[in-house]
Structure formats: C-alpha cells, structure tokens
Automatic annotation (TrEMBL):
Keyword Membrane applies: yes
Name of the molecule in the record: PH domain-containing protein
Phylogenetic classification of the source organism: Bacteria, Pseudomonadati, Bacteroidota, Cytophagia, Cytophagales
Annotated keywords: Membrane, Transmembrane, Transmembrane helix
TM helices/strands, residue ranges: 15-37, 43-62
Length: 163
C-alpha cells in the first residue's frame, strides 16, 4: 500500500458565498410570495425553488480532493470531475505558486485561463502541475504541507534520473 504524503479536502465554506446564496434565496422567496399573492401559475413558483435548491445542493456537495502519495498525484472535484490519477512518470514538475484567483482565473471553482485549467475552492496558493500533455493548478489551503510533498516528489524524481 502506498503511503500518503499529502491529502487535502476543500469545500466552499466562505461566508461571502453563503451570503450571496442566502440573499438570492431571500429575493427569490419574496418573488414567489408575490407570485402566490397575484395567483400566478404553479410552475412560476416551483421552477425557481427547484433551481435554487439545486444550486444550494451543488455548493453543499462540491469538494476538491487532492492526494499525493509516493507514486502518484490524484484529484477530484466532486460532483463535477471524477478522480483523475497521474503517476509520477507522467508528471514533469510540481510547483507551489501564489496567484491572484480573480486576475489570473476570474475567480474560484473550475476555471480555464486559455493556458491551463485551475481547480480552486479558495485562497491564493496552488500546486501547478505540468505533465507531458498539459498543465493544471490545484488550489491548496495547506501550502506548507504541499511544499513538503513537492520536495519529496522532486527528490524522488532526481533519484530516479540519477540511478
């Protein structure tokens, strides 16, 4: 069994996100209440409630999971992206970087900046992964632990090339 070098699970728990979602919910409920008073159709009441419930459930269920063990890196962004696994042979480099999520990617979540994908739940630190075929960024809330895992990866990569 492989030993885990780094493991992190992140969720959208930022207060500002939930203020926006709850504010939207309040505005929608006020609109629905007004629809009920003016006797609009049932569809105009149920549809917004269903959409709002689905968005809230999506935010409650979304989680970014990152795992680095002695042989591979894997991540998933449940429920949107299933587990993706990269062996260390496929990875050319891992690098801990600081970035501006709004400027570089237009925010948090699953983003593309015309160069590479970013999977970020919050913060401004990430692991930039370069493989033989592509690059992507995995946001991290544990930069010190991530850096230790990157150092171990670099040591293993160097030892494999030296031997």
């Amino acid at each position: 069994m492989t030993n885990t070098v780094f493991k992190e699970t992140q969720r959208f728990r930022q207060v500002w996100i939930w203020i926006i979602l709850l504010g939207t919910t309040a505005v929608t409920l006020i609109g629905i209440f007004n629809s009920v008073i003016s006797s609009d159709s049932t569809l105009s009441i149920i549809l917004p409630l269903m959409i709002l419930a689905l968005v809230i459930l999506l935010f409650l269920s979304m989680k970014l999971e990152i795992r680095i063990d002695s042989h591979s890196l894997s991540y998933s962004f449940f429920p949107l992206i299933k587990k993706r696994l990269y062996s260390f042979n496929e990875i050319q480099s891992l690098q801990l970087i600081k970035f501006n999520p709004l400027w570089k990617y237009g925010g948090w979540g699953i983003r593309y900046n015309f160069d590479h994908w970013a999977y970020n739940v919050g913060g401004n630190m990430g692991i930039l992964v370069t493989t033989k075929r592509n690059r992507f960024l995995l946001g991290t809330q544990k930069p010190n632990e991530a850096q230790r895992a990157i150092n171990r990866f670099n040591e293993a990569k160097q030892n494999n090339h030296a031997g």
